[in-house]
Amino acid sequence: MSNPAWLWLVDANGSPLVGSSLVTNRIGAIEIRSLTHNVNLPTDGIRDD
InterPro entries per the record (predicted)? Predict the structure, then answer.
């Protein structure tokens, strides 16, 4: 089982965007149920051996 992740967002005016979480200490948060993460490191193709 994965560890849950929680997200709190604010809009451009600094007002919170309220999620549906009712969990203690996380009221109003958004629960992240899925996350895809990629890291791309572009290179110039020249090797310096």
Answer: Hcp1-lik_sf (IPR036624)
| Residue range of the domain that includes 7 | 1-34
User: Considering the domain boundaries, does residue 49 fall inside one?
Assistant: no
**How is residue 7 annotated by DSSP?**
E
Q: What is the pTM (predicted TM-score) of this model?
A: 0.56
Q: Please report how many Cα atoms fall inside a 13 Å half-sphere around the Cα of residue 7, on the Cβ side.
A: 10
Taking the C-alpha atoms of 16, 18, 23 and 25 in order, what is their torsion angle to the nearest 10 degrees?
A: 10
Domain count, the chain: 1
User: In this structure, are residues 38 and 27 in contact, taking their beta carbons and an 8 Å threshold?
Assistant: no
Contact residues for 17 (Cβ-Cβ < 8 A; gap 6+): 9, 10, 11, 30
Instruction: Count CB-CB contacts under 10 A for residue 38.
Output: 4
